[in-house]
Amino acid sequence: xxxxxxxxxxxxxxxxxxxxxxxxxxxxxxxxxxxxxxxxxxxxxxxxxxxxxxxxxxxxxxxxxxxxxxxxxxxxxxxxxxxxxxxxxxxxxxxxxxxxxxxxxxxxxxxxxxxxxxxxxxxxxxxxxxxxxxxxxxxxxxxxxxxxxxxxxxxxxxxxxxxxxxxxxxxxxxxxxxxxxxxxxxxxxxxxxxxxxxxxxxxxxxxxxxxxxxxxxxxxxxxxxxxxxxxxxxxxxxxxxxxxxxxxxxxxxxxxxxxxxxxxxxxxxxxxxxxxxxxxxxxxxxxxxxxxxxxxxxxxxxxxxxxxxxxxxxxxxxxxxxxxxxxxxxxxxxxx
Length: 336
Ligand SMILES: Cc1cc2nc3c(=O)[nH]c(=O)nc-3n(C[C@H](O)[C@H](O)[C@H](O)COP(=O)(O)OP(=O)(O)OC[C@H]3O[C@@H](n4cnc5c(N)ncnc54)[C@H](O)[C@@H]3O)c2cc1C
Prior knowledge:
By secondary structure, this protein is α/β, with parallel strands linked by helices. It has 2 domains: 4-79 and 148-203 and 289-332, 3-Layer(aba) Sandwich (Rossmann fold), CATH 3.40.50; 85-144 and 206-288, D-Amino Acid Oxidase, Chain A, domain 2, CATH 3.30.9. The chain is 32% helix and 29% strand. The chain has 9 helices and 15 strands. It has helices at 12-23, 40-43, 56-73, 112-123, 125-134, 150-163, 195-198, 257-271, 316-332; strands spanning 4-10, 27-35, 81-90, 107-108, 139-148, 167-170, 186-189, 204-215, 223-226, 232-236, 240-244, 248-249, 280-289, 294-299, 305-310. The strands form 2 sheets. Strands 3, 4, 5, 8, 9, 10, 11, 12 and 13 form a 9-stranded mixed sheet that branches. It has a 6-stranded mixed sheet with strand order 6-2-1-7-15-14, with helices on one face. A hairpin with a 5-residue loop joins strand 9 and strand 10 (232-236). Helix 1 (12-23) packs across helix 9. The longest helix is centred in the N-terminal third of the chain and has 18 residues, at 56-73. 44% of the residues are buried. The chain binds flavin-adenine dinucleotide (FAD). The site of flavin-adenine dinucleotide has 43 residues, from strand 1, helix 1, strand 2, helix 2 and strand 8.
């Protein structure tokens, strides 16, 4: 049966749900205070990789389902999705390759730096650059993953939603879900960190992330990530490069210039490059939920069905399609 769905939130969770609902023939409208680049999703890096999110037993299946969809999307160059080699490093010890990554082709990079240095010494050029870049790390692994260039991908999702007959209405702030127009019989809550106030969920905490956008870095065809403190990543996108990052418990959405300077210094030191020009600073609040991502069907006070879809922490992009599929299933496959 076709339903009419009001989705609250126009970050990656709301937009992906919007596409899934609208393309299955449901009357779909997204209502949001902010859209696209103004949301936390607009500040994300955004690589496919589970990070800062619970619980693993649900997250990994959602992530793997999303991975399949994104690999398919990467064949369409207009989508903003491409495949990139992720090099994940540790500065302190032997890095663990997650069990789920092994069948996906993850391979160890430990001692690669030394081997490359030896070989690069003989061949010079680009290889030497790569080897030098790895010198700060003790071990690492490599895995090919989807990268979503948020400057393109969020618009791509919005266009797909509109093409399927959906609507996006911005500057709409709701105090409670019951305030959604009663002509929508389904309400989908994709409010990210906003769900703290919207549904009084005290389990949510803002894991603040700040990044600096810099021009593309010469000879950096792969993403470099190191989760040991200080968190460091350099992610080359279509037209620029994202330098990160931070992960602190804070509600502050303003960019801090001292933090940007620290991020750019650490990335430049690691990549052995001159400090680049800063094109922009971005801040987002990762919606981390202590008891885990909430994908759950419930009932509003007025009797309507609501499906919650929030609390994706540092993995909203990584889980987006897997969670959206579960949301549409919960919303439409069970009795209203
Ligand atoms: C620096 C940084 C790097 C990241 N890197 C990655 C990465 O590499 N890979 C990855 O998978 N994830 C990454 N993340 C995490 C990812 O960005 C988030 O998990 C994701 O953006 C959450 O998306 P969302 O749609 O649930 O929430 P949001 O993007 O925050 O969107 C919430 C929406 O709800 C609306 N809203 C909220 N409250 C209300 C209300 N009361 N009424 C109306 N509208 C409301 C907002 O206006 C907004 O439109 C990163 C995050 C940051 C900050």
